[in-house]
Amino acid sequence: MIRIEAVTKRYPDGTVAVDRLSLDIPDRAITVLVGPSGCGKTTTLRMINRMVEPSEGRILIDGVDSRQQPVNTLRRSMGYVIQNAGLFQHRTIVDNIATVPRLLGWGKSKSRDRARELMERVGLDPALAGRYPYQLSGGQQQRVGVARALAADPPVLLMDEPFSAVDPVVRKGLQDELLRLQDELGKTIVFVTHDIDEAVKLGTMVAVLRTGGRLAQYAPPAELLSAPADAFVEDFLGADRGIRRLSFFPSAGLDLLTGPVVRADAGAGEITARDTGGAPWLLVTDADGRPLGWTEPGTLAAGPAGPARLLSYGRPFVAGRDSLRAALDCAVLSPTGWAVAVDEEGRVTGVVSQQAIGDAIRAAHATGRGSDGTPDGTSESVCDPAHGDRTPKAAR
Amino acid sequence: MNGLFDLPSDLQHSYPGLVGLHLREALIPVAAGLLLALPVAQLCVRLRWLYAPVLGLTTVLYAIPSLAFFVVLIDYTGQTETTVMIPLAVYSLVVLVPAIVDGVRSVPQETLDAATGMGLGAVRRYFQVQLPIAAPAIVAGLRVACVSSISLVSVGMLIGNQGALGNMLYTGMTYGRPRLIWLSVISTAVLAVAVDALLVLALRLLTPWMPRGGARPARKAAAR
């Protein structure tokens, strides 16, 4: 465990970047430092690998003061990833990744083998091994940066706004990749960002810092969203924290109606005989049970439903895997106000109204369910999150 | 009738001998200048306040005419090659120090941060990161230094015939032999161009990591 004990960083001109900060950073989890610029988050990160030396206080790594060992030994035991990757432009991708193994005295071919293995791990085409950084896109360079940090298999990974300089689509991909990697590797990751959505998505624990380098709140993201410590944290979380908090509530408890779901080849008699549960719409599916679109019961009775006469069903959510946020988003996007639930194969398992989702949200809030859950999506729509099934790794 | 490359005996050298001598007198000072410039430049990078005075001093030295430099040095080193080479080394220094300082400073801060954060010490950082990335700037400085050095060697003819190809020019003028004059001038120019071309080639081989204009289409595909 990394323990930051009453650490202060004061510069010669009197500026205080970090002010008596204490944090226990749990093992094998992602701890995010987040805050506005000038809050000392990068300084804090750099004090962990002693690129900045604290003015007061100390940092313990597994109970030992970080100043006990030679500084370069310390740094080689911690992967370091920064914005824009900071690759060595004069070295090939494989040699960039092999940097720390080489420093640790591994042989050249062993280091390169390890580097190639990591390229695969982080989703890079091995054909890029002999290329130089300028030949890669920003997203690829950032993957190389992550691979380089992981090369010597350090227990700790320090990441300083690693995904800030890439476009949103690439950033989402990199975030998902990091979560996937973390599931495999279980590193102790300290992650700095100014983006609260990124913090909530990635963090097992989130430390919100305020300007002047003081800790405002240190909590799991769900707790941060449900109980911000003060007005600063609430303001920093943004206006839609209620909606974002829904990411932590599973959709498994929703009452799905199957009555309003009919196959396109169903006969008129079968349709009129159905109990639609009061739904004013019918969802038409194909023979395999995949959704085709919404229609009014009367129209369907008049004859077989062609796709042209159906209303779009928007985007379905995966019942059980996706969160209530995803379900609500689907209902909001649907022209009928009803969300379509599907299984992992895309077959309809039922439909649910905005009203029913609202009831489920109230019920979830009442029982406090999901307070130790995990986020499953991004700031945008979360109908198909890649990590809804991520196991919680909360350390406390 | 003499052959094109036959030289009068008072030059004391064959044509290839003069060319070799010229290259030696021109390039040894540049090499010496580079060896001296590297630590000076590194000092200037580390101690920012030092750069301005060093630049000022070398510029003043550069302003001293080579002939005056030779005359002062004759008292110490006599009418020898050394007397020619010392000023040339000083002139190279003037070109090389700013080139190396700019080159080393052009290394992006994030690259240095990454190097530090991964546990490269100051020495490794210098030799494995800063110097290789500064190579294009250093070679650019070397090109200027070499070409100017090759042209300046000829002035050495004025102090005890230490001008290599310049001696040929002097002999040609003294005895009214246009062939020798032309041969000297053209040979000097060809030498300068050839050395420059070699440096450009060396840079290409040293820096496969530089984006080149007119890259192969295959690289385009890899870029995204």
UniProtKB/TrEMBL annotation, chain B:
It comes from the Bacteria. Keywords: Membrane, Transmembrane, Transmembrane helix, Transport. It holds the Pfam family BPD_transp_1. The chain crosses the membrane at residues 26-45, 52-72, 84-101, 133-160, 180-206. It is found in: Cell membrane; Membrane. InterPro entries: ABC_transp_perm/SBD, MetI-like, MetI-like_sf. Its main location: membrane. Residues 19-207 form the ABC transmembrane type-1 domain. PROSITE patterns: ABC_TM1. It is a multi-pass membrane protein. PANTHER family: GLYCINE BETAINE/L-PROLINE TRANSPORT SYSTEM PERMEASE PROTEIN PROW, OSMOPROTECTANT IMPORT PERMEASE PROTEIN OSMW. Belongs to the binding-protein-dependent transport system permease family. This is ABC transporter permease. It comes from Streptomyces thermocoprophilus.
